[in-house]
DNA sequence: ATGTCC
């Protein structure tokens, strides 16, 4: 990216001043190195977001931002419905409520190592992964609607996991305002056999070891110590979320003119929050959030079953579950005034600071856990929300390493088999149904996650708590 | 991300 047009606010914050049809400035949080490596399209896309009706304060890009459909991945934007604000399907992303949860196991790395191969094989056998994968749960119409309304709460009631899991999930596991009747039959049909499946692309289930603690107090509150084994699950709402996104995107493009919305880019199709389509999308999108929460909950149950067999002394407790493709109604202070806003986070994690009422009581003094999934074979990080992040980007942080190379380019450069062999040599066991998928996800195709986390920390978006190193990875 | 193009 050409940084000569940007105003440097500080070493980790850069502004594109409002110009032309931009209603507000665009702000990118990154250090100079990340910024220079960032695709020019991120600046274009985030500037286009700043042109949408009802946008408040600024459009933001996180340190892991890269080119996406309409909105950049790693984009945050909030809209005021009272001010003509919009909701955008492309601003949430196709994989609605894609997210990651981390489970504590109570195990130390040494206990796990003797069983590493058995665990890798059993997880791969029990966790459905890959394009079009189907699971052990099959939903009829009635159960589909119950799942879409109930989320992880529905899953726990059906025997998948523990009641105590729910308090460690955003929205206590059930997104309010979901409207299953706004989800098309086609979307439901695609999902009926896909519950409890990882999917493909960058989705994974990873067994990890805590390799470094950065913040002792926060780590103690989160239950993390050096040498601990944890499990992280990254996946979303599968075919259902994709279908909802596709259908509403089309509908929003067709209706934009009727709502007097001039689209700077077709891919930024949106509808006023206060319109039939806006409300219908919000209902369907929230149902999609519940689908993703239920999906991760079922996968958690399957993971517990595998550990019970291979390492029966393990006790898997949910640390936290974050969604990084959402639009949520939140109250934020803007220029001294509290406003109800529709906050879009696409490839960005909610990061509420200490004291926020939505953070579970026993974690509230340190802030919300923010889980940053690394790429395959690289570290992941646990951060905590900060008090200052509300004024920086509506309490948001990055979500991962962010791609640095296209999938196509990655498959030309690497072969899945060799990527797996190299990682095996470093003690990391990869299991995947797709060699090509492994090549696409080669560590070299991603940005340096440590640099991304450092920029998020130094920029004040969140504070680093712990680093996790992979031991076993089931890759979609 | 995605029944990787109804």
From TrEMBL:
Keyword Membrane tagged: no
GO biological process, one term: RNA processing
Top-level EC class: ligase
Complexes and interactors: Monomer.
Binding site for Mn(2+) 1: 95, 203
EC number: 6.5.1.-
Entry annotation: catalytic residues: 399
Pfam families according to UniProt: RtcB
UniProt keyword annotation of Transmembrane helix present: no
Cofactor(s) demanded: Mn(2+)
Example of a GO MF term: RNA ligase (ATP) activity
Keywords: GTP-binding, Ligase, Manganese, Metal-binding, Nucleotide-binding, RNA repair
Cofactor note: Binds 2 manganese ions per subunit.
Protein name, entry field: tRNA-splicing ligase RtcB
Binding residue positions for Mn(2+) 2: 234, 324
Catalytic activities: a 3'-end 2',3'-cyclophospho-ribonucleotide-RNA + a 5'-end dephospho-ribonucleoside-RNA + GTP + H2O = a ribonucleotidyl-ribonucleotide-RNA + GMP + diphosphate + H(+); a 3'-end 3'-phospho-ribonucleotide-RNA + a 5'-end dephospho-ribonucleoside-RNA + GTP = a ribonucleotidyl-ribonucleotide-RNA + GMP + diphosphate
PANTHER family: RNA-SPLICING LIGASE RTCB HOMOLOG
Family statement: Belongs to the RtcB family.
Entry-linked InterPro entries: RtcB, RtcB-like_sf
Residue positions binding GMP: 202-206, 324-325, 373-376, 380, 399-402, 475
Matches recorded under SUPFAM superfamilies: Hypothetical protein PH1602
